[in-house]
């Protein structure tokens, strides 16, 4: 199945693409828990190798409550991307509301040791309305 990336942002030749899906089978709406899975593809179209060092997420729920998540790498990896390479990973986000959003950045390092931030595009989290 080919993944449809709905959101993208490019910074200094590095593109971050995001596809997000609500997972009803992982959610417990009756208990006030909603769950989304997101697929991220990081593409290096710059002329230098880059390595993802850290991630910074801003997660906002439907009430406007903001949580920040910072950490090393993504799903336990700090991928090194040569020019023309890409890295894909999948992760998830639980919320206590049926809507919200995510955005953030990765801190990347070039081969010369310089650091730069790569934008993760804003993307909404929205559960489908319950069927009557």
UniProtKB/TrEMBL annotation:
Domain ApaG per the UniProt entry, residue ranges: 8-132
Superkingdom, natural source: Bacteria
Signal peptide: none
Coiled-coil boundaries: none
Pfam families cross-referenced by the UniProt entry: DUF525 (PF04379)
PROSITE patterns per the UniProt record, alphabetical: APAG
NCBIfam families reported for this sequence: PRK05461.1 (NF003967)
HAMAP family with a match to the protein in the record: ApaG
Name by which UniProt lists this protein: Protein ApaG
Organism field: Novosphingobium cyanobacteriorum
């Amino acid at each position: 199945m080919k993944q449809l990336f709905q959101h993208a942002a490019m910074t200094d030749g590095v593109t971050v693409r995001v596809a997000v899906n609500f997972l009803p089978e992982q959610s417990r709406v009756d208990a006030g828990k909603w769950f989304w899975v997101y697929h991220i593809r990081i593409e290096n179209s710059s002329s230098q190798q880059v390595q993802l060092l850290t991630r910074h997420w801003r997660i906002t729920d439907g009430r406007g409550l903001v949580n920040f998540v910072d950490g090393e790498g993504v799903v336990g990896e700090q991928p090194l991307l040569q020019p023309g390479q890409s890295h894909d990973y999948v992760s998830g986000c639980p919320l206590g509301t049926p809507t919200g959003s995510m955005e953030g950045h990765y801190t990347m390092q070039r081969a010369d040791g310089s650091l730069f931030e790569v934008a993760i595009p804003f993307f909404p989290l929205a559960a489908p309305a319950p069927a009557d």
